[in-house]
Amino acid sequence: MSIQLNKYIASSGFCSRREADKLIDQGRVTVNGIIADKTTQVEGKFTVCVDDEPIYQSQKMVYIAFNKPVGITCTTDLKDKTNIISFINHDKRIFPIGRLDKDSQGLILLTNDGDIVNTVLRAENNHEKEYLVQVHKPLEKDFAQKMRMPMKIDGIMTKPCKVKVLGKQKFSIILTQGLNRQIRKMSRTLGYKVLFLQRTRIMHIALGDLKLGRYRNLTPMEIQKLKG
Asked: What's the farthest any 2 CA atoms get from each other in the chain?
């Protein structure tokens, strides 16, 4: 039985399907020694290589929750000295699901299951992500109301979100979008500079008391719910 090439690469744990498509477009993937395209189908005895490196189907899937410190970059590019992969130094080849900007800390999920990435990140699924934020000055009385409402950043309208004031300069926010540096840009639009930003939850998975710079394996129940 044959499967689509990008699915094969993703299920090997090499990268997500989206990244696999990029590698295929760049001509870096061969099947049985021939440069492949997105229509290529793969069967069990075929030899698939990325940059002449053979890849194989993973036998054990890994799903971890990591409390990312500030200064670590959510990239698999090992040339970047701050890359998340070298910092964690896991014995399996893993990659982050989504991103958390370098200036922020908190929860990020990593896996070698390329098939699950699109499920988690697909915008129409409206998966919640929760953050704790501190800004540079006291919040005005109508801050939460304004922050909840859609606003335009980088030419895109944000979705309504949930905001709760926790202190003079602190609030929590729950997003169902993943725009680049969204909370910082939303705060800036209202005249606030973010001093501290921590992601505390992704969907049903909470950061809890996981120490900064450490990771844990997801529980079987967490994995089951993650897969939907």
From this structure: 65
Q: Is 101 a catalytic residue?
A: yes
Residue 162 lies in domain: 128-202
Give pLDDT tens digits for 130-158: 999 999 999 999 999 999 999 999 999 99
CB of 136 within 8 A of CB of 192?
Answer: yes
Same domain for 69 and 95, yes or no, is yes
Choosing from 21, 101, 103, 113, the catalytic residue is: 101
Burial of 210: CB neighbours in 10 Å, binned 0-12, 13-18, 19+: middle
Whether 93 and 33 map to the same domain: the answer is no
Q: Same domain, yes or no, for 109 and 221?
A: yes
Structurally, the chain folds into a number of domains equal to 3
Helix, strand, coil tally for the chain in percent (to 5): 25, 30, 50
